[in-house]
Design brief:
alpha/beta; Rossmann fold; 7-stranded mixed β-sheet; 46% helix; 10% strand
Length: 379
């Protein structure tokens, strides 16, 4: 099994814990940073904050690795860059007459999120010090591509890695990756504001992985039987107080598309309530069955027309201009919400394909990781 870590999510959790601990430390005073005397106008983390952040980062990563044990193949850290979705959104609203009443007056992708001006100090330290050490000493792979969100890279890896996959993130949008065919993809999410830690799993585990070796980046060196070990990994996380949640892939994806995403400031389809969305989804599942997601990702015309028809019936919509607006909104939500390589812009696909075609992933070295974790004073 490979472990994919949403690097931005991981760092944000580490920051939150570090700052929480710092509040109890008199050395922190009113800020966790000080002026950098060697960089005019710059700042740096206070020493005890840096040490606390470093130590927690390794302890936390170890907690993700331990339940996988000897089944762990490679570890992949994925980081955000500037999002293509922001540019796509701006361009869409500049060119389109799309005027859904569900959209805010000024539409901005993830426009309602707030940021701490000095969190970059933690990110810089992690990417400039911790990640190079994990890469050089332990074989941790790491990726960041211009214009690409971490979720896009995670989606591509989940589609193309040969082994079963465990994804760590705080972003439950990634639940839509759990149903990727031909392998088991699991998603673990920390507690955060909810009552429990969660592990999202396919409704049925695939008992056996493909054992044909292919000479490319995503190939396996040996035959890989996954069912039993994956089940044991799930049970290991449950024993660590994670609560198991099976994921219905088509319901998960279509619910997000129809009802939008408040956390990302994405509007729902006009006049679609949760009850109406459920009726539309059940009808689509009945008609298209297991081919539903594939048709959606291909933007199949018959499928799109059927979705429009179902929504029009349930909303008693006959005005062709309104139906045209509905189509624009539906395609917009698919494009911006769906995590599937086929739906990504051509330039994003090209970046991912060209990089991974030439890249050979490093295998994770557990002994070296433990040795580094036990001697963090070298960082």
């Amino acid at each position: 099994m490979d472990l994919i870590v949403d690097g931005n999510a991981f760092i944000n959790v580490a920051i939150s814990v570090t700052k929480s601990l710092a509040m109890k430390d008199k050395r922190t005073a009113d800020a966790y940073y000080v002026n950098d005397l060697f960089n005019d106008g710059g700042f740096m983390l206070k020493e005890h904050i840096r040490v606390s952040f470093r130590n927690f980062s390794f302890t936390y990563l170890n907690s993700l690795i331990a339940p996988i044990g000897t089944s762990l193949g490679s570890v992949h850290f994925v980081f955000d860059s500037k999002s293509w979705r922001k540019e796509y959104t701006n361009s869409f609203f500049e060119k389109s007459t799309f005027t859904t009443t569900s959209a805010p007056v000024e539409f901005k992708y993830k426009g309602n999120r707030k940021y701490d001006d000095h969190h970059y100090l933690f990110f810089d330290y992690f990417q400039q010090v911790i990640i190079p050490a994990l890469n050089e000493k332990c074989g941790v792979n790491h990726y960041r591509f211009k214009g690409t969100e971490g979720d896009d890279i995670i989606a591509y890896l989940c589609e193309n890695l040969s082994q079963d996959i465990l994804v760590y993130s705080v972003d439950q949008d990634l639940k839509q990756l759990v149903g990727i065919p031909n392998k088991n993809v699991l998603l673990i999410v920390p507690k955060q504001m909810s009552k429990t830690k969660k592990i999202f799993v396919p409704p049925t585990l695939i008992p056996e992985m493909a054992d044909e070796e292919v000479d490319d980046f995503f190939s396996l060196n040996d035959a890989h039987i996954a069912g039993t070990s994956t089940d044991k990994i799930i049970k290991s996380f449950i024993n660590k107080d994670y609560v198991e949640h099976p994921v219905d892939l088509s319901h998960e994806v279509l619910t997000k598309i129809l009802l939008g995403d408040k956390s990302d400031n994405i509007p729902k389809i006009t006049n679609i309530s949760p009850a109406k969305a459920t009726k539309v989804i059940e009808s689509l599942q009945s008609r298209f069955g297991e081919s539903l997601i594939s048709l959606l990702d291909d933007l199949n015309e018959e499928f799109i027309l059927t979705v429009l028809e179902e929504i029009s019936i349930i909303n008693k919509l006959a005005d062709q201009d309104k139906i045209k607006e509905l189509r624009d909104h539906l395609l917009f939500n698919i494009k911006i919400i769906r995590l599937a390589t086929k739906v990504f812009p051509d330039e994003i696909q090209d970046v991912l394909v060209s990089f991974f075609k030439e890249y050979h992933p490093l295998k994770f070295h557990l002994k070296e990781f433990i040795a580094l974790k036990n001697n963090l004073s070298t960082l």
